[in-house]
Design a protein that fits this description.
Shape: globular
Largest sheet: 3 strands, antiparallel
Low-confidence stretches: none
CATH architecture: Orthogonal Bundle
Strand order of the largest sheet: 1-3-2
Number of helices: 4
Number of strands: 3
Order of helices and strands: EHHEEHH
Length: 93
């Protein structure tokens, strides 16, 4: 399966995001930046998260550490919701 890559420079221009912000997200493990032929890209499936992080940062003025905490808590909530669904399915058997 071929993955779609989106140039970071295009994302920055279309979403009014600073290049360094995306690089900081990458260095903190929040998104993955792929480098090919000396150009930086983001996988298409990570675009939604990147847009969410940009909204938190630029609109809500949440710093990088706050974004990390919020993302961690959202992942934890998702795992707990999955566990609840599983347990409900097991109970109803």
């Amino acid at each position: 399966m071929e993955r779609t890559l989106i140039r970071i420079i295009d994302i920055c221009q279309s979403h009014q995001i600073e290049l360094q912000f995306i690089r900081n997200l990458s260095s903190n493990g929040l998104i993955e930046v792929v480098t090919q032929d000396e150009e930086e890209f983001v996988k298409e499936e990570e675009l939604k998260a990147l847009e969410q992080f940009a909204t938190w940062h630029y609109d809500l003025e949440i710093n990088l550490q706050g974004i990390e905490v919020a993302q961690h808590l959202l992942h934890k909530i998702e795992r707990l919701q999955e566990e609840i669904r599983f347990l409900r399915t097991e109970i109803n058997r």
